[in-house]
Amino acid sequence: MIYPNTAAEKLGFLDIKELIKSYCLSTMGQQMVDKISVMTNFDHINKFLRQTNEFKSILLNDSPLPITNFFDIKTLAEKARIEGTYLTEDEFFRVSVSLSTVFAVIHYFFEREGQYTNLQALFEHLPVEKSILGKIERIIDPKGKIKNNASSELQNITSDIAKAEQEARKRIDQIFKNAQNNGWTADGNLTVRDGRLCIPILAENKRKLKGFIHDESSSGQTVYLEPEEVFQLNNIIRDLEFEKRREIIKLLVALTDELRPYVPLLLSYHGLLTKLDFVRAKALFAISIDAEMPVLIKEAELDLINARHPLLFLNFKKDQQTVVPLNIKVDEQQRVIVVSGPNAGGKSVCMKTVGLLQIMVQAGLLIPADEHSKIGLFKQICADIGDDQSIESDLSTYSAHLSKMKNFIEMANSRTLILIDEFGTGTDPQFGGPIAEAVLEELNQKKVRGVVTTHYSNLKTFANSTPGLENASMLFNNQEMQPLYILSLGKPGSSYAFEIAQKIGLSQKVLQSAKNKIGDYQKKVDTLLVDLERDKKELIDTRVSLEKGERRLKVMLAENEQLKTYLEENKRSIIKDAKVEAQNIIKNANKLIENTISEIKENKAEKEQTQKLRQNLEQELKKHTVPEKKAPKPQTVAELQKGDWVKLMDSETIGQVIEIARDNVILAMGDLRSVVKLKRVEKISNKAVPKEIRKSYAHDLTQDFSTFSTELDLRGRRGDEALYEIEKYLDRAVMMGLNSLKIIHGKGDGILRKLIRGYLSKYPQVDRMEDEHADRGGDGITYVYLK
């Protein structure tokens, strides 16, 4: 139940129904949309939601459902039910195409057995009686006309009509030609008057030709005459036409009699078409608002994730804008959310979004929210929105509000959802606030759920200290004086009355006078709320920045793991190749030794020959002997400089020194940057570095110098974006050995400047920072000098 009756309209539910109706193919579907109402039965709601979700899946992911022809066959079936009546050719044609659609749809789902179970339930146990279609198609052609061969009598009559028409035409053509030759005719050709083919004759010649005059021209100079001979033939044709019509009616009556036993089945087919049109319209509307099916639960609570008001979403979509999503939870612990904050900050939209989406779900409609959102069921939905003053009932605005509050309290229970906009307004705040607090206390004792918006401080204080009530605020950027439309649970919000008044230009004198008129306590509370909101915004920005940093770290760790895996695989491959080569060397050495001994024996150990063979053996062995490596002398900071080439001692990897910091050295190895211990590297000469590596490094460095600008413009960037850009910018600047940089951040309120300089002061490579000259930008530009 929705109370009052106007609540659905004020929440926008009637607008939703009108939008759904625009997607219907038939008036029957539109009539079903008009009947959409809030349900409380869990199984019914779940069935309707799943049907719509399945149809949405068909529209997005499957071949089109063959539902192009929708006609109101219920009216036709009811007509056919009455004895003595008959359906016309056109009516039978509409029944025929509708049945074709029904059978095509049933076949579509039979081919996808078990895939769309909730939609298949629409025609479960519904027989496919194709004989009805066969009976109609035997008589009616694809254009909706009686077939000429529907019966032998009709076929004979049609043939006689054709012959008579042919003879009549032939005869009148001859008469017309003779009249033309005699100069009796007026300008023009044969024409039809009163359904008869006539000759245009000049009025002075009308007695020269026997026949019947059907009409004359407006000037009276031309008459339209049907020749006597043709008149008789046309009468024969007319009689044949009457016979044909009588035969057609006879056939239609017989066909209607054949269909009369199938009237209940035709009504069932009509119901299927209507339901399909209805569900299709809901699915198309769901697609238009990016709607999903939430998790339906039986408890009286809700948890909306990334929810958007559907009407607001569609309006923003036209202007290519996006709606700030709403995240809100109402459950046993926080039953009533008391939302406060500035005017035009989104409080009412928040409350209306909750109410409208709850109604939509309980009406079986998908909602524009994350599919993990949870929506429960409420027995009553009570809303107090807008001005309901009534001259007829002699009710003022405040009286109308109090009347609703009275009814809310009487009908409220733990399965009631209340939605109250600007709670307590309409009368003196000194009295309206306490009354609103007492009503809220009574409603809370009845454990209702809901969302309440207010500006009253006493309600914020009451919610803060009362179990079951939860404060919430719409965030506001108090530096740019712009609402953020983000709901923040856990604390009340300031109304920003003085800040907004100052922004729109109210004089300082008036503002100061107003501040003096409010109490010190109220000023302290409002100031505290503003400070809390500012601190929370900074925390949110910091959290966003940290999350971005964590994502970047994860990416870097993943890349590091890939590189490590690649090096391990190469290491195993090199060792394997080395073992194979060593085995080959040993094998060849053994052969050489055996051959040498054999030759010595053959030459009977002559001294000179033996010595010569030994020398040959030693030379061959030296070729495969690995010279003993001397332990490398540990490098010192003084021995290495930026730009030197080094090799890692435990591998053949070569890199170029970017920077030396204490016992560590930063190396550039291709596109990678790595920090290694100083004792793990060995300085090598430029000649020892492969030519292609030197060329690649020189090319990269040249490219960096040619494309790198010493000026970075960050105006208009968010804080986290600006810091990310500076981090990349400084890394490249340090790598290329630059001495100074110019960062343009603008003046504004000085927030971005403060954030950037705070970050740069912690960067170890930064020596100092200075403002630009006042004539060239002043403190809107920061010069950064590197060590």
From TrEMBL:
Keywords: ATP-binding, Coiled coil, DNA-binding, Endonuclease, Hydrolase, Nuclease, Nucleotide-binding, RNA-binding, rRNA-binding. Residues 147-174, 511-549, 575-623 form a coiled coil. GO terms for biological process: mismatch repair; negative regulation of DNA recombination; rescue of stalled ribosome. It holds the Pfam family MutS_V. Residues 712-787 form the Smr domain. ATP binds at G341, P342, N343, A344, G345, G346, K347, S348. GO terms for molecular function: ATP binding; ATP hydrolysis activity; ATP-dependent DNA damage sensor activity; endonuclease activity; mismatched DNA binding; ribosomal large subunit binding; rRNA binding. Its EC number is 3.1.-.-, 3.6.4.-. Acts as a ribosome collision sensor, splitting the ribosome into its 2 subunits. Detects stalled/collided 70S ribosomes which it binds and splits by an ATP-hydrolysis driven conformational change. Acts upstream of the ribosome quality control system (RQC), a ribosome-associated complex that mediates the extraction of incompletely synthesized nascent chains from stalled ribosomes and their subsequent degradation. Probably generates substrates for RQC. Belongs to the DNA mismatch repair MutS family. MutS2 subfamily. Homodimer. Binds to stalled ribosomes, contacting rRNA. This is Endonuclease MutS2. The gene is mutS2.
